[in-house]
Amino acid sequence: ETQSQKCPTRPSTHTEPVRASEYPRKNAEILSGQYGTNLLLIGAALMLAIAHHDPAVREEHLLSFASCLMLLQLLWMMWYILVRERQDNTRTERDVHATTCWIRGGLTLLALLSLIMDAFRIGYYVGYRSCVSAVLGVFPVIHATHTIAQVQFLWFHIKDVIKCYETFERFGVIHAVFTNLLLWCSGVMSEAEHFLNNHKRRLSALGYQNLTIEHSEPNCNCTTSTCSMFSSSLYYLYPFNIEYHIFVSALLFVMWKNIGRNLDLSSNRKRKVTKTQGLTLGPILGLLALASTIGILVVYITHVEKSLQMRQSAISMFYIYGIVMLVVMCCAGASGLVIYRVNHKPLDTSKNPSRQLDTELLFSSSIGSWFMSWCSVVAVLSTHSRPPYRWTNLIYSLLIVLEKYVQNLFIIESLYRQQENAERENQELPAAPEIFSVTSSLAPPYNGIINRAYETPERVCVAMETEQEESGQMYRCPRKPSEVPMGVGTKGEEAPNIKRQILKNIAVLLIMCNISLWILPAFGCRPQYDNGLEQETFGFSIWTTVLNFAIPLNLFYRMHSVASLFEVFRRV
Amino acid sequence: ETQSQKCPTRPSTHTEPVRASEYPRKNAEILSGQYGTNLLLIGAALMLAIAHHDPAVREEHLLSFASCLMLLQLLWMMWYILVRERQDNTRTERDVHATTCWIRGGLTLLALLSLIMDAFRIGYYVGYRSCVSAVLGVFPVIHATHTIAQVQFLWFHIKDVIKCYETFERFGVIHAVFTNLLLWCSGVMSEAEHFLNNHKRRLSALGYQNLTIEHSEPNCNCTTSTCSMFSSSLYYLYPFNIEYHIFVSALLFVMWKNIGRNLDLSSNRKRKVTKTQGLTLGPILGLLALASTIGILVVYITHVEKSLQMRQSAISMFYIYGIVMLVVMCCAGASGLVIYRVNHKPLDTSKNPSRQLDTELLFSSSIGSWFMSWCSVVAVLSTHSRPPYRWTNLIYSLLIVLEKYVQNLFIIESLYRQQENAERENQELPAAPEIFSVTSSLAPPYNGIINRAYETPERVCVAMETEQEESGQMYRCPRKPSEVPMGVGTKGEEAPNIKRQILKNIAVLLIMCNISLWILPAFGCRPQYDNGLEQETFGFSIWTTVLNFAIPLNLFYRMHSVASLFEVFRRV
User: Cβ of A564 under 8 Å from any chain B Cβ?
Assistant: First the structure.
């Protein structure tokens, strides 16, 4: 039944514009993938021209382009929702791995912060409306509409596995992916430019260098009293807006990969959340890390603008703090891997585009930070100046490489191992029955359970059937709670697996540490700009280019690893 | 029998150091992939420092690093060959899709040119040995040894599907992949620097700009009379050396993907080459394109260094020539796609890492050139200067985007469609028997053939069995030539399929055109440097950075598409 390529019945007025069976899937992928890539490249070319401050290409042009793309995406989403509404809802397959409730919740939060940002932008435009382009006012309005519509789309349609109108829907989804990627790039560019200007201003104030600072202030006075408040608050909201767009594009990309896919329904089941017992050391250490991070952030930002002495001590402090954090993270990740080596299990190799993408994103977003670290290593080894933080910088950089190496291994192995654990809990089909020998004797035979459920299809069962699109459990009607043998139900609570507890603690600790390491660069603690070592070896322009590429990737890495680790935590 | 994960019998002195079944495959992939990526990043960091002309990091450091990597790879290859020699040869599975004879032949040719380059480098070192680092002499010696050993490895082992010692061999193969990638990057950097210096010298001579040119000449006089000959000839050999390394790393990457893979032997058969009848229009047009390209190259290079008038006319000529070429290529690719749409066939979706990589490389190496084109479009639309080639540049850039778009679609669809054609020819099992109704009646029943072959296992059959590792045909003993019914054997010659002939002509034409478009930038015809439009919009440093990234990718794209199109040509 999963191989059905036919479209569900639809109104006869729609004579299928594209016959999915006619056009090969691989071609449709390439066709739409190339379209999306070119959209992004046009945007990137515009951004480069803006970065050069060419008078003929201004920010308005980029914003108009992005607005057009957003409007197109809005139209497509409306079309999609309208067509879906008309269809028979129960026939839409859903990929339960595509996203989770808490990811959608987190995205909604980020979207709310983006909306606040749009409000600030509108306020800023109102203040300066006499001398700035109308595009600066239209863009945030469209962006806000786009954000609201997109969050609604994410909540209700992101798990859809599209089976008909494939080619057209492919274009729509990939358009949405690359629109969000473009908005991400644009956010990253604005943020980097703002940071770089601040950095240059600071250097000039210290008398280090004579750099030209680009002023982007409009040529007229603000008519309201809140303009400067709006423009300065904007930069605190940028990190959230940036993360919002890149996460949305990852989710939409999974949706795109799912188009035309035949789900393997046996592995397409949602898993139960395990109990959170024995969580002490991980959260405590994690909270400690988070608290110290905020302290470090405040001290760093206030000290780095002061005298050379203060600046150097702030940078040294950062590196020592970083080394401690990274050593803890390496140890945590390594012990997780050791635990996995001790109880060997085969990995789950079933197809799962969402997990595949997670793996690739972790790996590829590490590259930015690795590159930055190796540049630091080269700089430290080749430099002739002797700042106090020279060797701590070296150790810190090497630990960054090691920590990402270990953490990636840990996360990826966790994501690929989950299957068996989950099966054991969910289906009560122990893979190694001898371990569960006490409970097995208590539990009735499995086929008996299933037969009973089919013989007496009760209310619970019917309710589950209507909710099938949400949970993806279509194949067996769940046992009623009263039917669950007590032995199985309470075993996990009475004798919790010590290894699993350790793994849960490790996951919580790593989540907190990754949040810490996201907060620092996101809110302006970037010693790579301030320590001067790399700048000496690579020159100002090469090094800032490297940082402008590596820091956004690193920020994305931290956020993405938090999301993945949360998944690990829930499923261990 | 294909699922056997056990290692073949080996001397008992080797107590398996890594038990493949113990360590999960996904982890081994990530572990080795991360290792290789970091190797490349270290090299890239060194290159950036060299590009800044930092006195503490010199080319010697990069060359020493690359030499160490090559030595390590040599040791690993020796170990691999020794271990394999001891093993039972017939037990090694081979992936017939991994490479073809003509790819290996082409690589051998490129390797020979690389050896000549090494000889030149040694000669250059001998001339200047009193004042340059000994590394400059050691590096070409190691590189030559490495090239010879690697070509030998490619000929005899690249198709191996490694099933035991997995983790260690994974590291060895990925080390080889990234060593070659590093050598590629280093070649690209030297070539780009050389070109940029030439360009700056030309601009200075024309009085355009006052740019500092980096002199890399040693501080002493050459002791032989041939130094300048060596150093100037080097740059004509660079393009070949660069292509050699990137192709080798692609092949080795396929070998890495194949490690631990269970081959689907039913699709792992080599295919026969079809006859080359009716090839007239494609080769003629292609040769015309190739001849005109060489003319354009000579005219361009001689004219562009002259007065502004000559320069502008040379650039205009290039664009007009390019537009004609690209229109022809677009039409060819589009008609190929139309032919595919007319006779609809399902695509082959069996797993094939080699083909998968081909697809991804085509797609991702297009990005460089697309980005360059979109930058040109932005520049043309925003510029205020009015050179005569302004609008031809715009049309040329848009056609570049369109041509790659269409060509990628054509190549990828061809690669994914081949299966059925080949099956029809190879196995004589027509998918649509009614077309072959005449021949089917002539041919004996298939099971009869197979039975007869098993009943009378003759010389041909035994010979094929021993060659099984070369051809991969393990499953059926081929019919003797005399047994082939004449109807099947001559049908293809008597009534050649007109569509197939058109496709073959298209493939030949596209091959020639892609070679033409490789020759031009590889030998110095790069109007993107000379036309000045983009430089005005993006600034000198941003635009040269874009070109340094995009032109090598574009060169690789052209070479790679030639290889893929040749594959298409053989299998249509």
Answer: no
